[in-house]
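Backbone shapes recur. Consider a single case.
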Amino acid sequence: MVPIEYGNYYHIYNRGINKTKIFYEKDDYLHFLDLMSIFLEPISEIYAYALLGNHFHFAVRIKEKSEIAYLHPKYAKTKDLYLKWKTFIPKSEKEKKIFIRKPNPEKMFQHLFSTYVKGFNKKYKRTGALLEHPFERVIVDSEKYLKRLIIYINNNPVKHGFCEDILEYPWTSYLSLTSIKPTKLSRNTVIGWFDSKANFKTLHNKKDDYDDIKFLFLE
């Protein structure tokens, strides 16, 4: 299994066990996105995502260790950590000594998924595993492939027949990346790779079989 390491770019994806549904209604998608922000923002830059009925995709860069802030000791041992996760940069050597640790990137992904499953099981009165384990991760080692991956992820609903037009599906990063509204995504970085928002949209609307990046995903 490829490790999650500082500074690397990844395609992260997973699906329900036996392809079972992991999202049933709007609130499930919204809750997952909330948890994505809580757990992934401290340790990564998020470039793209797609949430579909029985699976999901992310394109992210794991921050360098020096970019990741420390976990405040006040919140380190709370049972509902995901509701109070707070990280920040110590301002002095004295402060550094009282800060327990920095969030571990791999564990933050695990926290995201386990927290979602726990809430899902409680909501739908089910028990046991929901997601395949461990979650899949593939290193993306060039800007060319990262751009192609972002297009692939945003077009996943079209590829799987959830909609005919990318604008019709609300649970991908496409609408946020093309909007001017505030976003948790690294929108300026993404659009910069495509030179302009117009070019970003044009490339997303071309027919594509993604044969050149099949090594980045497993369906």
In short: Residues 105-123 form the longest helix (19 residues). Strands lie at 9-15, 44-51, 55-62, 70-71, 87-88, 136-139. The chain has two domains: 9-68+104-216, 69-102. Residues 69-102 form one domain.
